[in-house]
Design a protein that fits this description.
This protein is an alpha/beta fold. The chain contains ten helices and twelve strands. An eight-stranded mixed β-sheet has the order 6-7-8-3-9-10-12-11, sandwiched between helices. Helix 3 packs across helix 4 and helix 4 crosses helix 5. The model has no long low-confidence stretch (mean pLDDT 93). The protein binds iron/sulfur cluster (SF4) and magnesium ion (MG). Iron/sulfur cluster binds next to loops. Pfam families: ABC_tran (PF00005), oligo_HPY (PF08352).
Length: 320
């Protein structure tokens, strides 16, 4: 297959310890059996409320945290069976862009050094070559050469995210996980950063897993969208299909909050009751039943299967 990334039945459970002896008393099922596939050059949008497990999917895919079960293949290679050394070899090809790049930047390090250090770490360039490569990457990310000697606090939020992206792409990766990369930014700046992601994809041939709690953010960037709820994928479809014909009640609720540019059209806003339940003790049957506006008795008893209902359109709901 031409998949860059293939994920099969991925699970990540965190133990909760308690009592005098720190025994494991329960598990947080942060990711509870996710499968997805991302083709080269594709942008996959992973959407859901905070606490749905999206970030854990991203970190487990990059092997930044260990999985509990399942399989992650990157360009055909089983990531979890790679040795430390092979993993180090492949690391530069897959990178993470954070929500808050400021948190990962050393305040006393000049931006040029922060962006260039990975090149030296991986022996990709000599000291003499680093500056040129950093300048080239700054330009690709819409920053100017005068930024190279500045410190993080001298940058605006949008510029800092450009720096975060520059750090992620300096090693010429093929695959980026972007975890809520625009959520901390003003709406006007969000659009600029989304455009940057789109330009870089076209110019550098990048493939993305783009994580967001906001469907309107992934709408224009992503070709396929997956919707997560409480550790599970509830719907997955090509973007246009998902927006035109959302099938899962949760997707419909999320979509009802996305503004439509045409003021003569109106979407009825579906407001979900209650909060997302705890992943320690998720609801029985369909995990969404406590908040679903159309739940029936059957929904409390059995979990719906995640199945394909149209070409590339998957959904987990008894009523579909
Ligand atoms: Fe709602 Fe039942 Fe469908 Fe779950 S299975 S989304 S509770 S209708
Ligand atoms: Mg998160």
């Amino acid at each position: 297959s031409d998949a860059m990334l293939e994920v099969k039945d991925l699970k990540k459970y965190y133990p909760i310890t308690g009592g005098l002896f720190g025994r494991t008393v329960a598990h947080v099922k942060a990711v509870d059996g996710i499968s997805l596939s991302i083709a080269k050059g594709e942008t996959f949008g992973l959407v859901g409320e905070s606490g749905s497990g999206k970030s854990t999917v991203g970190r487990t895919i990059l092997r930044l945290t260990d999985k509990t079960a399942g399989e992650v293949r990157f360009k055909g290679k089983d990531l979890y069976s790679l040795s430390k050394q092979d993993l180090r070899q492949i690391r530069p090809e897959m990178q993470l862009v954070f929500q808050d790049p400021y948190g990962s930047l050393n305040p006393r390090m000049r931006i040029g050094d922060a962006i260039g250090e990975a090149l030296l770490d991986h022996g990709r360039a000599s000291r003499a070559e680093v500056r040129d490569k950093v300048l080239e990457t700054l330009a690709l990310c819409g920053l100017s050469s005068s930024h190279i000697d500045r410190y993080p606090h001298e940058f605006s939020g949008g510029q800092r995210q450009r720096v975060g992206i520059a750090r992620a792409i300096i090693l010429n990766p093929e695959f980026l996980v972007a975890d809520e990369p625009v959520s901390a930014l003003d709406v006007s700046i969000q659009a600029q950063i989304i455009n940057l992601f789109s330009d870089l994809r076209d110019r550098q041939g990048l493939t993305y897993l783009f994580i967001s709690h906001d469907l309107s953010v992934v709408e224009h960037l992503c070709s396929t969208i997956g919707v997560m709820y409480l550790g599970s994928m509830v719907e997955m479809a090509p973007r246009d299909e998902l927006f035109a014909q959302p099938l899962h009640p949760y997707t419909r609720a999320l979509l009802s909050a996305v503004p439509i540019p045409d003021p003569t059209l109106k979407r009825e806003r579906i407001v979900l009751r209650g909060d997302i339940p705890s992943p320690v003790d998720p609801p029985s049957g369909c995990k969404f039943h406590t908040r679903c506006p159309v739940a029936t008795d059957a929904c409390r008893e059995s979990a719906p299967e995640f199945r394909e209902v149209g070409s590339g359109h998957f959904v987990a709901c008894h009523l579909v």
